[in-house]
Amino acid sequence: MMMTGADSNNSRWWKGAMFVTAAAFTGKVLSALYRVPYQNMAGDQGLYVYQQVYPLLGTAMITAMYGFPVALSGMMMEQGTDQKPKEAEVTARAAFVLLFLLHGLLFTGLVFTSPFIASWMGDPQLAGILRQAGLVLVLVPFISMVRGYYQGLGNMQPAAVSHLTEQVIRSGAIIGCTALVVFNGFGPYAAGEAAAAASVLGAAACAGYLYVIWRRRDNPRPVVVSEVIQRVKEIRGTFLVRGLMAASGAMIFLLYQWVDAFTVVRGLTEHAAGAQQAKALKGIFDRGQPLLQFGTVLAVSFAMTVVPLIQKEKTTEGPDRSAAYAGFALRLTLFTGSAAAAGLMMVAEPVNIMLFENQAGTGALRILAAALMFSGMIMITSAVMQGHYHFIRPILFLGLGVVVKAVGNIMLLPAFGIKGAAAATVLGMAVTAGCSSISMFGIQAVRLPSGTWIMKLTASLGLMMLLLACMNFGYEWFSTGTHRLPAAAHALTATAAGVVLQAVLVKKWGLFTEEERMHLPFFHHLDNPLKPKGEKKR
């Protein structure tokens, strides 16, 4: 049985991972939910405007959640934070200085170049919204420093709570501000400005919470400016590279959204679709983005924690223990990603109608669903390689996938429209996932799933798809039209049935051992009702 005799410190790390997972899961729910009323109020063109600037907002906040904090916490753990608390604080402050300089330059550059960026996107009206969204860059240095400092001490609570704070404030403000703008007769660009301002407000609330936590930390250590400057010189290259590498896997969808922001509207406009129709089609295509991000939350959260944990286990317990953790994370990612992909393919139409009022873009959404499996593999394989100090390969493979995506958009958009853009996304991610997997296996950094396990996973997916196909047939037989209420009933009941079936098969077929399920609260709680009568709880 895997991970036998794990000490309390390792247990704390996995509990921390699940705490962050729960926060990230809730955040992704909120992120998906606020887009629904936003699209319903502002329309597909309004969603297009927001999604054009969202990659900037998302990139900033992902580096502040999954990138630079991971790099900082890794450096603190290497120094031994328990034995050298002053060293940890010096390193944290040095990281802040580096990030302040970097993001200050980025914000200044954005202020002056936003008209050119907007024109490159094919829509000069986006310039002001880009500048407004860029304000979030000013907050990233402090957010990253405090999160990374506490993660280096093994305390995941500040990262989790601050993430929830940011998401709750941002979601509520976006809905409220958009409603105020739309109901007063303003157009989609005004709605986009309101959404960008609300996003900055959410980041400011996150920074405010972390400021309170930072001020209340135990035994703050006085540091000398010269020590901080010296540490800046020591870590500058390593810290920035590690931070960007750690965030690269979590930014997979955002990088593809950057490509779409610069190519989809221009490509559609240049090939038969008028400017207004192209913007509306881009908004329809963007309906799939929150669903894809929501489907990979487990992989993102485990990737965030597995990097320092693998480094720690490799040093203290040896490569076998490290490979065991990586193998568990890989199997979990394969299970959740493939199940989410198969499920979304089967219920794409009712989900689309339930959330966005009509079935426009359902074909593209079904194609995009396949990306869920590949994106999860990218995130976890990148994290494992980074845990073994292979930082360059993941970014090279990710860059290769982005190039494939960009070329795919250019070639497929004229012939197939937004379905071509969706296919390009899947193709690019498949290339990155394949290269990353081969590289990870080559360095023997993970225990590979057995052939029996793969067969069980395939069978479980087949049964789930058969169940959902039967339910789809039943709903089509008894229901007519495309109204939201019956579509919602269809989508929710089908999703619930698929989740329950998969949970039962996890237990019955042993896809994860009982000890592994102890790290998965949902499945752990299911163990009790699934135990035969008379069997005692272990």
Structure description:
It is a single chain. The protein has 538 residues and is mostly helical. It has helices at residues 8-79, 85-121, 127-133, 140-152, 157-183, 188-215, 225-250, 252-270, 275-285, 288-295, 297-316, 319-356, 362-369, 371-387, 392-416, 418-442, 451-478, 484-508, 514-517, 521-530. The longest helix is centred in the N-terminal third of the chain and has 72 residues, at 8-79. The two termini are 14 Å apart. This is Oligosaccharide flippase family protein. Pfam families: Polysacc_synt (PF01943). Keywords: Cell membrane, Membrane, Transmembrane, Transmembrane helix. The chain crosses the membrane at residues 55-75, 96-117, 129-150, 171-189, 195-214, 239-259, 291-310, 322-344, 364-384, 396-416, 422-441, 453-475, 487-506.
Notable traits:
disordered C terminus; globular; mainly alpha; PG_synth_SpoVB
Oligomer: single chain
Largest sheet: none
Order of helices and strands: HHHHHHHHHHHHHHHHHHHH
Q: Distance N terminus to C terminus?
A: 14 Å
Number of helices: 20
Q: What share of residues is helical?
A: over 70%
- Record field, number of beta strands: 0
